[in-house]
Fold this sequence. Notes:
The protein has 16 helices and no strands. It is mainly alpha-helical. The protein has 2 domains: 34-103, no CATH class; 115-291, Orthogonal Bundle (Hypothetical protein af1432). The structure holds fe (ii) ion (2 copies).
Amino acid sequence: MLLILWADPTVNERVEREKIRERLGSRIAVPTLPRVTRRVKNVLASPNIGLREVAAALATDPPLASRLLRNVNSAFYGFDHPILDLNHACAIVGLHGLERMMNGAPTLDRPGSSMGATIRHSVLQAQMCTLLCRLAPGARGQRGRGRVDPRAMYLQGLLHDIGRFAMIEALGQEYEDVVEAARASRQSVEVAEARAFGFAHTELGAMLIKRWGLPDELALAARHHHNPRELGETDLPIAILYVADLVASPNPPHSGAGLERVISPGMLELLGLGREELGMLLRIAGDRRDALTV
Ligand SMILES: [Fe+2]
Ligand SMILES: [Fe+2]
């Protein structure tokens, strides 16, 4: 099956792929793990619960965080500016609204799925984005560019791979096999997805974010986080996402020097990062990766 998919697609296959992409890109929600929704429901059911605790729980799950942001930025609430703060979003929706939201949240419980790994990667990526906002002189406004907002970067990191959740659910084991084969041969997952299915999680993620009415910076993060060159390598948030993604990947480089070799000199200059800081990022990511549970 895999061999057929990797061959040039016929016209019918292309039409079929386009239909799948359109169907996935028009979804109103993507699934998370049942144990994640149980954990958030338990937080909501706890006595004397504060909205901050609920927001903190939602901030560790991309599908649920995106569901909340889609709700609060919908025409129903009618705000004339985007709401991108999960604490603020929880306060607007309220405990009853959050309970209703949780009751309708889709889940996927399929043995062997990479859903849990994708959630952990997304949270680690988001944490590395905020760390880079504090650590990189370029992100702190010391390279002649504006300061980057760590909260905004956390959300961009959390949702950067949102397209993968839709692909994991809809394409099943075939998707897992394509990603696994790409990683094993150190090929680009994005390129492997496009070859096998006609579209990549980057394109699909940007489509979903736009359909959900969320701001362009989140769609740009989803679209370009593997290829900052598409934006000329001068976009500071995309540079942060790119480095955070390398650090939070399942197979990161082993040392600061190794990481330095895969990042262009222009981007290192933009961020103001050297080998030493990159090594520190890798060590912190390693510690946090071990502590992440989903
Ligand atoms: Fe990605
Ligand atoms: Fe990623």
